Amino acid sequence: METVKLTIDNKHVEVPKGTTILQAAKQAGINIPSLCYMNLPHLAQEHKPGSCRVCVVEIPGKKTLVPACVTKCTDGMEVLSHSLRAINARRTVVELLLSDHPKDCLICPSSGNCELQKLSINMGIREINSVENAAISTYRKDSSPSLLRNMDKCVMCRSCETICNEIQTVGALSAVNRGFMSVVAPAFEQDLTDSPCTFCGQCVAVCPTGALTAVDNTFHVIRALADPTKTVLIQTAPAVRAALGEEFGYTPGTLVTGKMVAALRALGFDKVFDTDFAADLTIMEEGTELLNRISRHLSGDKSVRLPILTSCCPAWVNFFETNYSDMLDVPSTARSPQQMFGSIAKTYLAEKMGIKRENMVVVSVMPCLAKKYECQREEFKVDGNPDVDYSITTRELAHLIRMGNVDFKSLKDEDFDRPMGESTGAGVIFGATGGVIEAATRTAYELFTGKKLEKVDFYELRGMDGIRTATIDFDGTDIHIGIAHTLGNARKLLDGIRKGMYNFHAIEIMACPGGCIGGGGQPLHRGDSIVLKARMQAIYKEDLNKVIRKSHENPEIARLYEEFLGKPLSEMSHKLLHTHYFSHPKK
Amino acid sequence: MMKFEINDCHKKTIKEICDSYGNKRSELINILHDTQEHFGYLPEPVQLEIALNLNMPLAKVYGVVSFYSFFTMTPKGKYPISVCLGTACYVRGAEGIVEAIEKELKIKVGQVTEDGKFSLDCLRCIGACGLAPVMMIGDKVHGRLEPEMIKNILSQYE
Predict the structure, then answer these.
(1) How distant is the Cα of B63 from the closest Cα of chain A, in angstroms?
(2) With an 8 Å Cβ cutoff, are B59 and A178 in contact?
(3) For FRET with B44, which of A11, A91, B117, B153 sits at 20 to 30 Å CA-CA?
């Protein structure tokens, strides 16, 4: 490989030809600050509009400073990242960015997580001299069930646009208008709810400021906990335990399941349950549906739609309802684990506990913003009462724990309540891309072949590649499986299916990079793939730690069918655990 | 203002324009030019149709339409008025001409009258500086204007 030699702040560096100054500096342990730059190596996406100029560096002899993010290293180059000239220019750039930025940092939802705030702190900005009385825009605030847009705080880095268009291919956001009027917005500056937005929340995950933030439901939860007439249940999604620790200073990938349960109990939740239980239930329903379709297909039934697509991810459901309304009969009709949990809690469990539906409040902790929207969908309500009342994110839970004066690190591990806290390793791996289909495979194999599955780890289904395929031998019958994460990869698979290019039996799709572990409600990782991989390892570690690793062996699930549901796909199951999809063609 | 209803004939025209540029996203600006020339403006359903033909997000199409001042989402009147605000016209009182028209037609620059008869825009120099201040109504140039003349000139258009 051809390399170039240069010095950065008098350090000798040798890098492959084509490397930018910013990347070379990073290798040399020099962190040149940046704002609009975003690197997502696991998605092969480098966003470098070169527009904010925060990363300017001096090259002696050159008339102007250069932006490090888009300037390539050349042989013999001398770079000064913190010369007086570079620092002055950088400070001016940040001052100018701040000049028309709202100064309400103290009460901003992104306070403490804001890249612009960090820059201001690191640059030691104490006053803004550059522009006197700069006009601060007063753009209308746009709220949706999942996310909020406050364009007054937008710095036009356009990272959201890249993730929405290039990675997710949702196409809800674009830079519109020009000059001082320019903002990132949906077409015709309509509201997000009228746009093709799927509420995946990846734009929130990459927004460096408070321009795009999540809807905050923590106070609804606090009020419910304070209401003596209410029994408040909480369910925690698999991916939450693999990331919550980061909010309390643990290294990424630290499992905090036991502490999380203890914290929730300390906060006053009446029952602390696990969405993993509902994930096992999902496998029973979705797995049976899969087997039904495969058996019918193998016996020559031409009307059966294959592949079957998973339906756990609400952003993915929104995506196909918007973009593939001709294929609404392809996805599994199984509700997501969040919704299955709510539905069973407010029927089976409410009856067991002897409480009325309206006196039960079901809260979910999710790594996800789209879940906030999902639990508000009309089809998941009974007489206006939702199966899941409030969905909060991993970040909101951390907030709730801090507000509840709980010293997270000193907590002793506790276990979930029963019955809806009993789960298997199959339920846990729902949190990582490929996990749902692996869990389904573990159960479907045994139900299909009638034989015991000795090797439950399907390594061929795991990993971070955007599209993965595998063929699993079901005792002589080949089952073809596809997996996609990010909606852009989902689109590639779906377009292929529409054209009849593939012969998959089952496909798992997750909207977020890495699956739920990379969800828009997780602690902000700013595209750091090391964090994502660590969380993924934690998920598989939790699976390994479980005694039971197949959903159909969950004793509480067996009891639920025995006492209440009958069998998978029964009339009761259809009523409580399945759904139908709607066509929402939007552009 | 009437809402633009797109019909199959409109869709065919848009498809032909997009086809003529090989349905390339990189030709979006040219496609928008031709489409605006045909329809007079770029209403929402027309932009959506272009997005569908080019298989690109509508937000991106709108992003381009809203960026370039040449593109408009407001229909032009039967008689589009363009007042020159070039240097020569400006120093000879073009601003007063704009004000007079705005007052007479009860519209602002960039708008169209309720009956769809006149629309008002400004432009920079039409090369008739000797007649400053000038305006164009359709293809006809009116020069050496004074605010008092506006009412009379506009009344000539039926």
Answers:
(1) 4
(2) no
(3) B117
